[in-house]
Specification:
The structure holds 2 protein chains of 2 kinds.
Chain A: H1 2-24, H2 31-40, H3 43-68, H4 76-93, H5 99-128, H6 132-152, H7 177-180, H8 197-214, H9 216-226, H10 228-233, H11 238-254, H12 256-265, H13 276-286, H14 291-314, H15 322-335, H16 337-352
Chain B: E1 6-15, E2 18-28, E3 33-37, H1 44-51, E4 59-64, E5 67-69, H2 74-79, E6 82-85, H3 97-102, H4 114-128, H5 143-156, E7 161-165, H6 173-188, E8 192-197, H7 200-206, E9 209-214, E10 217-223, H8 229-237, E11 256-264, E12 276-281, E13 285-289, H9 296-303, E14 310-315, E15 318-319, H10 325-330, E16 333-336, H11 340-344, H12 351-356, E17 366-367, E18 370-371, H13 373-386, H14 403-414, E19 421-425, H15 433-448, E20 452-456, H16 460-466, E21 469-474, E22 477-483, H17 489-497
Classes of the chains: A mainly alpha, B alpha/beta.
Chain lengths: 353, 501
């Protein structure tokens, strides 16, 4: 009863608040129900949710891994930009590679580019004592402008006016669900950008889980994050591990490019990321930094994104930026969780008296 | 003397099963200068914090003017006229002196009547003989003057009882002199002063009465005039426990496991180690005695490679810095850290995880980077049983264990059979007698098997029972060394407190 209440009551409240916002925008709150069913009960909605959840799994892992060692990686946004542009760059130089080389190369370079961008804050934190939050935030700006330059000049698509790169060579394409399973006779998630890099994300989450909870390395990281002084006392090389963590986190964030560039758009469009790097923080927070939990929470946030898209379709006055409002409401509720739980318990206690 | 002004009646306090105060009873007369003296961890600060409303007592009562009182927080205590200066000042560095003085006690009017307040504070300064510049920012003041701000703060709140917790610990000798004389002055103006210290000289020169505490209990409350240094030191260290100096073996020089020569450290602030030299041979226990904060912490940091130093250190026959801290552990270096919860354990981790900390890359705990859970479990079960950790569950969070059992986990890990040099800091701090004797037996066994042990402890009985030699450290340097049997307790106490060397 209590657990049902703990999930059910906030859900109803969130629904009511959202309805209030929709109503205030001059729309009929009834479209919420339609958007909800389109999001969760149609292949189209599910396809988009998978597509949105994939980058969030990567960035969520990127944040969570660092967090286990007591480090804050706010730089996933910059790392994923480098990962994305690296794919275009490698395709630009090696456009004739066969598929079985091109795809692994693209994936590895995306991870590598993100890792290199993570190396900088890692080094500065470990050996220079800089605060990683400041460094990673600032590096995001540098990455945005630098990648912006690459998009607009060396890698620009000459055939269009918009700020986007050339199309990558087709050998680098990762199949969409609709194509990959076509020999089953069904076009899974037809017309959605959901693609097989989702499985790379799942694999990464599993890998992160195993490293964290099953390996000596993960043991060291968690020791560092739980009691840094004791970890140092035990001879754990906290500097090396800090560096190592930022590199791995950067690699995870860089893999966002695989979903975006190899899987769906086949090019980098300036400003393509609606803040995946920052949403990753929320995703990790909701999952309490558990890698397998991150899959679920990425789906939640991905679902919100799809839901916002649907609302945009169904209304005149609402843009898909409503997803940010929904995220905020959700986060406020999650942040209030201890307080709400206490209130509920108290009410129950009083009703007994 | 009439009715006691302030009376503690059988006050007891436990923290997580460790008793900090047991049936503490004593009286303080109005307008007196009362000292509370004892070793570290004797419960001096705890009993004062109970009075001040920081902690609440488990049992017993405190009577103020004959009326039973209990404060729930320091604000209530201040309103009743009790003020405390903590060892670490509670000042806002960027505010001026007068702002700090009124902070938390500001008038509730819309604007702060600065002129009036300044006049009031100045009046206080004149009355009690202070001369601080009220507009000065606190961060620019020397420590001694910051302390005066703390005292003025209490006077501004009309405190009648001033409690000072180790006030001279942070001061130079000259500043200490000024402070103590100022306190005498305040006493003449009908304030009651309670001074917590472990410096015998301050007690003897300045106080009227003194309460001596040891292991959470009051040993005696006497008028200072009836005491001398020797008597005070023996009371403080505990003469009544005749410690059997057992199994002292005349050690024959063997290979050294630790050779330290002319070790010094630099630091911009705080304590420096000055030219330390020290040898620990295999099969020997060397004790280091000293009041807390005389360089023991720094020595531990140097040996665990957390602090840079000049000089030479050879551990287990090789230069310390030829190996990483982790490698040195594999070579047979064990450390029982001074603060088990801060440095020794990852409390939320399970017991088995804590038992492999620092050895987690060793076979068979891991293979190819993967932790091998069956081996870890097996090892943990053996160790927990051998060291009698209760409850004996490998997968229980270490945070749930009592202090003594937590310490057993550390000893099981750091002082295993293959350790060749053990650095043991306060190994039996806060553990019961049974566990302590078990540890001591274990250390003797290690010594018999040829390990060298460097024992840093504030428990002089422990030092004397275990050590072959005892060195005394003060202010970052070794000032005395004798075979353990040649030290008497009062000698050791006097040497540590620096009244005699």
């Amino acid at each position: 009863m209590n657990t049902v209440n703990r999930i059910f009551i906030p859900m109803v409240l969130i629904g009511l608040i959202t309805a209030g916002i929709i109503w205030a925008c001059g729309e009929n709150p009834a479209i919420l129900a339609e958007a909800f069913s389109n999001t969760f009960f149609s292949p189209f909605g599910l396809g988009y949710t998978i597509y949105y959840a994939t980058p969030l799994i990567f960035t969520g892992l990127s944040v969570a891994l660092c967090f286990h060692a007591g480090l804050f990686n706010i730089g996933a946004e910059g790392q994923l930009l480098w990962g994305s542009i690296a794919i275009v760059a490698v395709s630009h130089h090696f456009s004739q590679l066969p598929v079985f080389l091109a795809i692994p190369l693209g994936i590895i370079l995306a991870a590598l580019a993100g890792a290199l961008w993570g190396l900088i804050p890692g080094y500065l934190k470990a050996y220079r004592g800089s605060h990683e939050v400041v460094v990673t935030i600032l590096l995001n700006f540098i990455a945005t402008t630098w990648v912006g330059y690459l998009i607009l000049y060396p890698l620009k698509n000459p055939n269009t006016q918009s700020a986007e790169t050339e199309i990558i060579s087709s050998t680098y394409f990762i199949p969409k669900f609709s194509n990959a399973f076509s020999w089953f006779g069904t076009e899974l998630f037809r017309t959605t950008p959901a693609n097989l890099s989702f499985f790379i994300a799942l694999f990464c989450a599993l890998l992160a889980h195993l490293i964290l909870y099953r390996s000596a390395l993960g043991y060291e990281w968690r020791a560092m994050g739980t009691n840094f002084t004791a970890a140092r006392f035990a001879g754990i090389r906290t500097r090396t591990q800090t560096l190592c963590l930022f590199v791995i986190s950067g690699a995870f964030a860089g893999l966002v490019g695989v979903n975006e560039v190899m899987g769906s758009e086949h090019k980098v469009i300036e400003g393509f990321s609606p803040g995946y790097g920052f949403s990753g923080i929320a995703v990790a927070l909701v999952a309490e930094n558990n890698p397998l939990g991150i899959i679920a929470s990425a789906f939640l946030f991905g679902g919100l994104q799809t839901f916002a898209r649907e609302l945009e379709f169904l209304s005149d006055n609402i843009s898909k930026d409503i997803s940010i409002v929904l995220q905020a409401i959700l986060l406020i509720f999650i942040a209030c969780r201890p307080w709400l739980a206490k209130r509920l318990l108290k009410q129950r206690g009083e009703s007994h008296d | 003397m009439t009715l006691p002004f302030l009376q503690f009646d059988r006050v007891s306090k436990n923290f997580n099963g460790n008793s900090a105060n047991t049936l503490v009873s004593f009286e303080v007369q109005q307008g007196s200068f009362h000292g509370i003296v004892g070793e570290n961890g004797a419960g001096k600060s705890t009993i004062m914090k109970i009075l001040y409303g920081v902690h609440s007592p488990d049992s017993g009562t405190i009577l103020l003017n004959g009326i039973s009182t209990q404060f729930n927080n320091p604000n209530q205590a201040i309103r009743a006229g009790i003020g405390m200066v903590h060892q670490h000042f509670k000042l806002v560095p960027t505010l001026s002196v007068w702002e700090n003085i009124i902070l938390g006690h500001e008038p509730t009017s819309l604007f702060i009547p600065k002129t009036n307040l300044l006049a009031t504070i100045q009046q206080l300064q004149n009355d009690f003989g202070f001369s601080l510049d009220l507009e000065e920012k606190v961060e620019t003041l020397p420590v001694g003057q910051q302390q005066q701000v703390e005292i003025l703060k209490l006077l501004f709140r009309k405190a009648r009882i001033l409690i000072l917790d180790e006030p001279t610990a942070v001061l130079t000798p000259q500043e200490s002199e000024v402070l103590l004389n100022r306190l005498l002055q305040l006493k003449k103006q009908q304030k009651t002063i309670i001074l917590i210290t472990h410096k015998l000289r301050e007690i003897l020169e300045f106080t009227d009465t003194v309460t001596i505490m040891r292991q959470g209990k009051v040993v005696a409350t006497e008028s200072t005039a009836s005491l001398d240094e020797h008597k005070l030191a023996t009371l403080m260290m505990g003469r009544d426990r005749q410690v059997p100096v057992t199994s002292q073996r005349s050690f024959e020089p063997q290979t050294a496991v630790l050779e330290v020569s002319s070790l010094s450290t630099k630091s911009r602030k705080g304590l420096q180690l000055r030219n330390l030299s020290l040898n620990v041979a295999a099969g020997e226990i060397v004790g280091i005695a000293g009041i807390e904060g005389q360089g023991q912490e720094e020595l531990v940091q140097v040996l665990t490679q957390l602090k840079s130093f000049s000089g030479h250190i050879k551990m287990l026959g090789e230069d310390l810095l030829n190996f990483t801290a982790y490698q040195n552990r594999q070579r047979g270096f064990g450390v029982i850290p001074p603060d088990r919860q801060k440095n020794g354990l990852i409390l939320p981790f399970t017991n088995e995880y804590n038992l492999i900390l620092g050895h987690h890359w060793e076979k068979p705990f891991q293979g190819l980077g993967c932790l091998s859970f069956p081996h870890i479990r097996q090892f943990a079960q053996d160790q927990l049983k051998h060291f009698d950790v209760r409850p004996c569950h490998p997968d229980l969070s270490t945070a749930t264990l009592s202090g003594g059992n937590q310490q057993k986990i550390i000893i099981a890990r750091e002082a295993s059979d293959r350790v060749r040099f053990l650095l043991a800091c306060h190994p039996s701090r806060g553990v019961d007698i049974g566990a302590m004797e078990f540890f001591h037996e274990h250390f003797r066994k290690l010594r018999a098997e040829g390990a060298g042990i460097l024992l840093i402890s504030s428990d002089l009985d422990e030092l004397r029972t275990l050590s072959d030699r005892i060195l005394v450290i003060r202010n970052g340097a070794f000032i005395a060394e004798k075979a353990a049997s040649n030290w008497t307790l009062p000698d050791l106490g006097l040497c540590m407190t620096g009244t005699e060397s």
